[in-house]
Write a structure and sequence with these properties.
mainly alpha; Serine Threonine Protein Phosphatase 5, Tetratricopeptide repeat; 3 domains; PDCD4; Programmed cell death protein 4
């Protein structure tokens, strides 16, 4: 029995042992002690950091049998599965944060009204804005659009506070604000409605908006006498832009409407029934502002100056200049004014046109930069102007002197006053008057 106990212990302990004599071995075992010595079984493991050649012996005692380190000789001696394997363990560090906590109703701290009980369902609720709020927020966006003309920027701002159920209010507000503005703004409003179609509101929303506008038309006429005419243009333009179906006009014509609304629908039917009416409706509001061609603007400027010379009403001329709405093109106005003064060869007309330029400068309608640019253009074109007006140099010097006495010309203008041909004019018997005028202007 002692031999069996020693033999069993030798299997569990990896260490050097004393020779043990087995029963029944006899003298042969005694004569050969090397056969009685059991060779120790060596275990080796490789460390992943040290490489495949590193060999480290395992612990000698099997008393570490409860250790969770791998026993196959591989690995770095760390717990298996990062400490998450086996039963009776705490699990992987940090795993308690991933577990779902389920409250127990038998828990003394259980709260029946808590939101984590699982009997409460959360849903997204979109609060509809009031109609007054949508109209109030839409007005500054529309007015700002009339300044920059960017439909994409306006659409992005509308999408921030407009929902599908109230999108018709946006179309209605656009038309109402455009009724109080010029034809150019009405054109911009039609373009905005066309670009917002399918993005902010649908054809159904546009139709509902115009139905509401037709109902409110008797009140709109009190503030805007031409509201019926303008609303008919909007309806016809929306049909031409495929924002409204043609049956909308037919349905409204059969409905019971007020007198102004019936007038608007009847005119919209007339516009749509004209030959090539859909093509003509693209320019139903006309072309205004800087969109107009250059030749058209020059023609309007020339007519404005001739009307001013005929009537002599300076205030009306200032109003007409403002209505042109081309501040970037005012240098052409100055150029045409000076050219007209050179061609008429009349001191009265020169004085009247000089007063016109002085009033433009005083009212800040024409900026100093645009004023100087117009004068410089005339000075640069004198070689061609003198071919049509032989006395152009004389008239120019006289007109520059008048303007210098009424308002100050820019230094760039005075430096570019032409000097060619002065000797010929002096020899013709002007007594050096032109030369004296040039010296005064330079001073």
């Amino acid at each position: 029995m002692e031999v069996d106990r020693i033999a069993s212990d030798s299997e569990n302990v990896a260490m050097d042992e004393k020779p043990v004599v087995e029963q029944g071995a006899g003298d042969a075992a005694t004569s050969n002690p090397e056969r009685l010595r059991r060779k120790n079984k060596k275990y080796a493991r490789s460390n992943s950091k040290d490489g495949p050649s590193a060999v480290t012996p395992l612990p000698k005692y099997r008393s570490w049998k409860n250790s969770r380190r791998p026993r196959n000789g591989h690995g770095r001696g760390l717990p298996k599965k990062g400490g998450a394997g086996g039963k009776g363990v705490w699990g992987l560090p940090g795993s308690e944060m991933l577990e779902e906590y389920v409250e127990d109703q038998n828990d003394p701290n259980y709260d029946s009204e808590a939101v984590t009980n699982g009997d409460i369902e959360f849903k997204q609720v979109i609060v509809e804005a009031e109609p007054e709020d949508i109209i109030r927020k839409s007005e500054p966006v529309i007015l700002e659009y009339f300044e920059h003309g960017d439909t994409n920027a306006a659409a992005e701002e509308f999408l921030d506070f407009v929902t599908a159920a109230r999108s018709h209010l946006v179309c209605e507000t656009i038309v109402e604000i455009a009724l109080d503005h010029k034809a150019m703004h009405c054109e911009m409003a039609s373009v905005l409605i066309s670009d917002l179609y399918g993005r902010v509101f649908s054809a159904k929303d546009i139709g509902y908006a115009f139905e509401r506008l037709l109902e409110k038309l008797p009140d709109l006429v009190l503030d805007t006498p031409d509201a019926a005419l303008l609303l008919s243009n909007f309806i016809a333009r929306c049909v031409a832009d495929d924002c409204l179906p043609p049956r909308f006009v037919q349905a409204q014509a059969a409905a019971a409407l007020s007198a102004p609304a019936r007038q608007a629908i009847h005119r919209a039917e007339t516009l749509l029934s004209m030959k090539q009416g859909l093509v003509r409706l693209d320019n139903i509001w006309g072309v205004g502002g800087g969109i107009r061609p250059v030749k058209s603007l020059i023609r309007q400027i020339q007519l404005l100056l001739k009307e001013y010379l005929t009537s002599g009403e300076l205030a009306e001329a200032m109003r007409c200049v403002r209505e042109l709405e081309v501040p970037h093109f005012h240098h052409e106005l100055v150029y045409e004014t000076i050219l007209l003064a050179l061609e008429t060869i009349n001191s009265g007309v020169e004085e009247q046109l000089c007063t016109f330029l002085a009033e433009l400068r005083r009212c800040c309608i024409v900026t100093p930069d645009q004023m100087d640019r117009g004068f410089i253009r005339v000075l640069e074109d004198m070689n061609d102007i003198v071919l049509d007006v032989p006395l152009a140099y004389i008239m120019l010097d006289r007109f520059l002197e008048r303007c210098q006495t009424r308002f100050r010309l820019g230094d760039n203008v005075l430096k570019r006053v032409p000097t060619r041909g002065r000797k010929r004019f002096v020899s013709e018997g002007d007594g050096g008057a032109i030369k004296d005028h040039a010296l005064k202007l330079r001073e």
